[in-house]
Input
Amino acid sequence: MNPVTRRRFLVLGGTATALAAGAVGGLAWLRGAAPDVAGLHVLTAEQYRTFAAIARTHLPRGGAFPPGADDFDLARMFDGYLADQPTTDRHDAGLAINLVEFGPLLFDHHAVTFSNLPPDAQLAHWSGWGTAQQQTRREIFWSFSRFLGLTFYDHEAVWPHIHYPGPSFARLASRPAEAP
Amino acid sequence: MNDVLDCSAGEFAPNDLTCDYLVIGSGCGGGTAARVLAEAGKDVILLEEGGDFVGPTRLTQRDTPMYDQLYTDRGGRTSKDRTVNILSGRVLGGGGVINACDVVPIHDATWAYWQKHHGWSEFSAAAMASYLQRALADLSANRIEERQVNRNNQILRQGAQALGWRGELMMHNRVNCQGLGSCLIGCPASAKRNPRMVAIPKALSAGARVYVRARATRIREAMAERKRVEVQTLDGKGYHPVNRFAIDARHVIVAANPVGTVALLRNSGLGNDTLGRHVSLQPQVPIVALMPDPVRAFDGIPQAYALTEFERHDPDVGLTGFRVESIFGTPGVLGSLVGQPGAAGKALMAQLDHVAASLILIPDQPVGQIGVRRDGRPEVDYTLAAEWKTRARQAIKAAAQAYFAAGAKMVVVPAAPPLVLQSTAQLAQIETLTFEPGTISLISAHQQGGARLGASDATSACDLTGQLWGTRDVFVCDGSVFPSTSSSHTMTPIITMAHALIDRLVARSA
Output
């Protein structure tokens, strides 16, 4: 086998670098730029947009009752949550969000990212994460759905729609005293 | 009487401290240890990583801030493969602040099992009876009264009775309970007779110094007469380090829950090969039923009735079988279990007031392992055993049968996708549950083992006094010490064991 000459090495290296740069550029182009979001602590604007899309898919407006994730900006709450998490967790969360964003490309082989899917396709794709063959996808699904369920249903604007009367201590304290 | 000292407060100046007995962790084990030692006249410091939460202004009954502040890792700790959500308290008073108040002592058969198979020669049911009595007195243990049984618990009982299955109203540690229903995120009415309400005030009265927002990070010179323990103070949120100080102590008693205890000892370079092994998570399966009439399970005592027909106590196996116990909580935690995205998940939650719910408690063999990652944080490696999965399927079937017998329209097992059963004719679908990682949401509220006691350092991490092998006066005093799952609920076993171990320590020093 011929040894790799310096020239051949440079050509191969240059080609690989160009391909990698092209792939990164292609992915960035596919994802598209997200509008600036002020006051984020951990998430990038693109990650914020992706997480907001996940939240909107998981808890859409309408259906059984009007409020949805978009009414409470759960993506910002997630960013605030991550701000108090250890660095490794922040990093892992960012990777997980990016994986969801490129999920349609990686797992369904469609040249589109999650944020750019229409709502029905987002729901079908996100639901697929809960039952995916890859354990990592299922873990990400449960991690995000736990956070979204906890924060959404803890919101007082949701309570009337699920027939929850609110914290009982205040309710009992405000209850008129029974006649002797 | 001393006050609780908050290390996150602006005026707190961290100076190095000295004591004879340093207790790390303030839950059922640590709180009891600090109280017994202080009342014996010892010079005690008690450290707690979490904050101090008492009363309605601090315990707000809101899911997000309470899980954030009362639970370890903000309620987000999981096993390595994320199959099991590992819940434990990170607050002054520990797990007793956030548990469902169930008082279930160690069964005689379990004591016999430990004696026969784990060398616990000194711990027979008879020898431990007086310690159990002390634990029950600490807890003001009493039987839940019929008038306190809410509709959620009545439904499970109704189903069990229709099938001719045994069950019981449980013992609990509430006094003057107002039925607020938020036990899992703290009782603003202070009805729980937990370590925060009993042991810690007594320890403070007897002169103990109690520090919160103080995380022990390393134990140094474990073979010396005086150990040096490094402490990290935390900010008001409890997640960001602020200052450091050190405590010199003759005795160090670690009671930081099995995961925290093993992590601290491992990060300190202590312990033999058995430390961190033989961990039981006792995974629980949630199950919900949609009833035709309102249940309003969020009001009243969440966990009052236990279906015990299938629980087994065997002197050659320990605790096995399973039990089903009603449970409920605030909407956030229930919403977090709904693994169904889109309109379907919302439709289920819209019927919250018609939902009955239970946890199925399935004792496990201690197959888990606690390790420490490069960054010093703990990691729990746990794989569900095939035998456990088989029993879990039987348990889910039994719970579903009970709900259908009580008139349920639908029974749902929170999985992805949820397993939805419309009648008993569909029970066979339960066999499709694989319990593979990420397919179902399991909960661990009763971690045990990891620093088991035993007569030999080849098979245990601590000797029968609780002293960590290879150390001088470094003890473990929490759920870590059990060689297998002690009971369906660990509060009473841990307090019982703490009384026994600390009595021995006091006697030794006398």
Summary: The mean pLDDT of chain A is 90. Chain A has eight helices and no strands. The longest helix of chain A spans residues 6-31.
